[in-house]
């Protein structure tokens, strides 16, 4: 599991540690890790041309001390000073080691092998200022590897917002812990490959944001025991599709069949289309209350204008509401339920539920998903470039999904996801686990299916067993 903590928590942990260590020790730990990571990226340090972009705070100090270490190993190191001042100890260390201050950034940046972005770290506010932005653009268009110190300058560490211009890094070397912005788009996209340097911080047990990794998912996946039968493995009910959108029913069932439930019960008018693709489905014309017992319901994909979610919400089993089912959703009705509810909106649906503009949700995904989860008393999976999962309890970490690909932005892939998540719910996973494991497998399946080429939603469903094996193998 990757854990991320907000700036306030990081600062408190730093202060506590600094009080116990000799002055400057923490920055030296950071700089040593940073220099080692840069050396690894450069391959050969001696003779390499390294440019440091140095802001006025400690982030610039880290860059200067790391630059001094690289200069001692034979790199040609130039510092571009972008703030009103620069870390004095760091600057002295750099010049002592043979580095120099560059007068003209545009003379050194285009010729660099590696650019170290030390403009701002966790103390940064807002986007880059114009002078820094111009230098950052020059770095991006050069051949240099761009390495962000702690986080790309210009991104918001706590939320992942990018208000204005920011450094686009190939890699980010972050200290002590991941920051939420490193795991959440749009900022995540600016960070490149992430590397964590341990500087000995003692952090609270519960992070603000976390990201599952293969081993975490493998632990959570349902595995049938020797004595299992299809009913014990869980039956998932899928209420989806309409005369107009039969395909949504097929795709939701496709996801549900690959999610670990022992049987999939489809309820609705698209039974013929479903059976034509998946004869193993149990089909019923409806209504859901008459279709037979299920352990979890999925309702919404392709239902059109008359989704009729009330009857399903009245049931006493977990319910996942997606797509058309989300439109008329009353917070009071969801809050009153005795069993858990999972909502899976994309940014547009989340915006409609919150009564804000779609752009507002996309710019501040973390705030939006927390707000919705609190308002509905539900687990909320917010789809998009970084899928986020929030629990109704605000003290539980939000999960940021690390898998996926923009090729997933294709009609019907959300239907596959809701079927898959519902199947995991029926198999007994807790709502937050079902939603985040589903997003993880779905993103992995999309990558497997795509390998950088366009994919259709049914390709994602077909790739799910392979993704499952990747995780468990
Ligand atoms: N506190 C510590 O012990 C440690 C801190 N570390 C480093 O220190 C960083 C935090 O240092 P600081 O608190 O000094 O803050 P930063 O260095 O992140 O930035 C603060 C400075 O940047 C200026 N600034 C803010 N927004 C700006 C913008 N948009 N454009 C240009 N300038 C802007 C501020 O006026 C201030 O001078 C961490 O990110 C990390 O890199 C590491 O050395 C590890 C140890
Ligand atoms: N830019 C993107 N990068 C990665 N994944 C994306 C992006 N845009 C959408 N997705 C994913 O694609 C799927 C689309 O679902 P959704 O919007 O519900 O479409 P549909 O209703 O057509 O199925 C979701 O899993 C979502 O997270
Ligand atoms: K930085």
Automatic annotation (TrEMBL):
Binding site for (6S)-NADPHX: 58-62, 121-127, 150, 248, 302, 346, 415
Matches recorded under NCBIfam families: yjeF_cterm, yjeF_nterm
Keyword Thylakoid: no
CDD domains: YXKO-related (cd01171)
Binding locations of AMP: 383-387, 414
Similarity field: Belongs to the NnrE/AIBP family.
Record keyword Magnesium present: no
Protein name (Swiss-Prot/TrEMBL): Bifunctional NAD(P)H-hydrate repair enzyme
Catalytic activity: (6R)-NADHX = (6S)-NADHX; (6R)-NADPHX = (6S)-NADPHX; (6S)-NADHX + ADP = AMP + phosphate + NADH + H(+); (6S)-NADPHX + ADP = AMP + phosphate + NADPH + H(+)
Boundaries of every YjeF C-terminal domain copy: 213-471
Keywords carried by this UniProt record: ATP-binding, Isomerase, Lyase, Metal-binding, Multifunctional enzyme, NAD, NADP, Nucleotide-binding, Potassium
Organism annotation: Streptomyces ficellus
Its EC number(s): 4.2.1.136, 5.1.99.6
Free-text remark on how the cofactor is bound: Binds 1 potassium ion per subunit.
UniProt: K(+) binding residues: 59, 117, 153
């Amino acid at each position: 599991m990757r854990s991320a903590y907000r700036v306030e928590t990081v600062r408190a942990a730093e202060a506590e540690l600094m009080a116990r260590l000799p002055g400057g020790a923490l920055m030296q730990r950071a700089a040593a890790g940073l220099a080692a990571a840069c050396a690894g990226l450069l391959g050969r340090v001696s003779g390499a041309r390294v440019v440091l972009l140095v802001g006025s705070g400690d982030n610039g100090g880290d860059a200067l001390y790391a630059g001094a270490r690289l200069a001692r190993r034979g790199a040609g190191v130039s510092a571009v000073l972008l703030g009103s001042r620069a870390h004095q100890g760091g600057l002295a260390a750099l010049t002592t080691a043979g580095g120099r201050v560059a007068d003209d950034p545009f003379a050194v940046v285009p010729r660099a092998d590696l650019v170290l972005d030390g403009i701002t770290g966790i103390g940064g506010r807002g986007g880059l200022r114009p002078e820094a932005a111009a230098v950052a653009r020059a770095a991006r268009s050069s051949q240099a590897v761009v390495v962000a110190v702690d986080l790309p300058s210009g991104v918001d560490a706590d939320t992942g917002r990018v208000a204005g211009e920011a450094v686009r890094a190939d890699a980010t070397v972050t200290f002590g812990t991941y920051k939420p912005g490193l795991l959440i788009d749009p900022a995540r996209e600016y960070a490149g490959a992430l590397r964590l340097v341990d500087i000995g911080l003692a952090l609270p047990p519960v992070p603000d944001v976390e990201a599952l990794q293969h081993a975490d998912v493998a632990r959570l996946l349902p595995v049938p025991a020797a004595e299992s039968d299809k009913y014990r493995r869980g039956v998932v009910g899928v209420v989806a599709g309409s005369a107009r959108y039969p395909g949504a029913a097929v795709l939701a069932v496709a996801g549900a069949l690959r999610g670990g439930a022992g049987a999939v019960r489809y309820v609705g008018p698209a039974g013929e289309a479903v059976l034509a693709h998946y004869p193993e489905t149990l089909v019923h014309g409806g209504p859901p209350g008459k279709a037979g017992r299920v352990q979890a319901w999925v309702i919404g994909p392709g239902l059109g204008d008359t989704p009729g979610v009330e009857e399903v919400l009245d049931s006493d089993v977990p319910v996942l509401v997606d797509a058309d089912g989300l439109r008329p959703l009353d917070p009071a009705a969801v809050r009153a339920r005795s069993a858990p509810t999972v909502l899976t909106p994309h940014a547009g649906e989340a915006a409609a539920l919150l009564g804000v503009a779609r752009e507002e949700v996309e710019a501040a995904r973390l705030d939006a998903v927390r707000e919705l989860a609190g308002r509905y008393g539900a687990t909320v999976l917010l789809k998009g470039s970084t899928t986020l999962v929030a629990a109704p309890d605000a003290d539980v970490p939000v999960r940021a999904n690390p898998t996926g690909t923009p090729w997933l932005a294709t009609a019907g892939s959300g239907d596959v996801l809701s079927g898959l998540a519902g199947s995991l719910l029926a198999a007994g996973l807790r709502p937050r686990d079902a939603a985040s494991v589903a997003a993880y497998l779905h993103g992995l399946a999309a990558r497997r299916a795509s390998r950088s080429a366009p994919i259709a939603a049914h390709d994602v469903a077909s790739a799910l067993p392979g993704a499952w094996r990747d995780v468990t193998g």
